[in-house]
Amino acid sequence: MKNISLLLVFSFVLLQTAAQELALVVDDGKVAYIDTSGKQVIQTDFKKAASFSNGLAAAQEEKKWGFIDSSGKWAIEPQYDRVNAFDSGLALVSKDDQWSYIKTSGEVLTLAESPDKYYDFNDGVALYRKGEKIGLLGTDGKLILEPTYKTIKNFWDGHAKISNGELWGLINAKGEIVIPAEYEEVGTYNKNGIWGRKGNDYGVFINWKFTPVPDATKIWDFKHTSDLTYAQKGEKIGFINNQGQWVIEASFDKARAFSNGFAPVMKDKKWGYIDEKGAQIVDFQYKDAETFSSDGLAPVKEKLWGFVDTTGKLVIPMEYDISVGFSFFQKNAEKGFINGLARVKTKKGWGYINTKGEVLGDKWYKNAELFTDVK
């Protein structure tokens, strides 16, 4: 019996420590946070606040900003004039016109030397500018890379584009060169593939080596949802794989990324869907169309947005506006369903619907943001 009791306690602890997602909503002029059941779990008197990141959310009280925890209590007392969201355990804050980084404990990160300009942490690093050059700063406050480049773009999955002039390359989060700055264009890093342009040749990098794609005149970024991406040949759009091979003929006017096996494509000003073999699975009939989510639904539009399943059946009527919402940290957020809920808008306000089209909590808000993990 004792062993059973211990098992129950252990199970309860696991449930208590499981990831919790909360969304910021504005109701009656005040900020609150709801969970994915629609229950309001944090009630506040704040008129200005932000979504959770790294377990804390920025909030303003009497013109000063601090951070609350998931119970709604102050974790870092309001004392700052400006704050940004936490990322990699650090947030950029300003007090009396002085910028600094703070940890989630409120402790200030010690830097050996202050930069000429501060940047947010992203993927465990922050850009570090001295004069005209930029390097990398680590979460311990030490330089990972001395100021070396004129430009370093934001990090995505541990990699960032770099340039010292007109040519581009790629570095990793250790500051190591993975693609030398020898290309007119380099795509955003993605584990499924990277494209680039050298002279007039568009191509992909295979084992970091540039390989031209025959007849390509433009290539778009690979996404985390497929090892295919769309590319242009002449005036039409088709799809290539990460080996640089054309796998779907360039016959479309516009396209979006493959997600969960399907991609929106446009012909004659109408959107439909194809599978990864190029077969049409939803007729060309919509004014606009977005990608399929893991829930098997995709947003489609005439005057307003509704949702179709993978057979093309309209399962949620076209009566909504949609957008990705606003988030500092959901890099790959897309329109439509995320973890079973879609952020939508009607004349009644902003809210969330489930895959059955039911309104979460039967409630509409003046504003509603994306759900984020509070851990």
TrEMBL record:
Domain of life assignment: Bacteria
Protein name: WG repeat-containing protein
Species the sequence originates in: Meishania litoralis
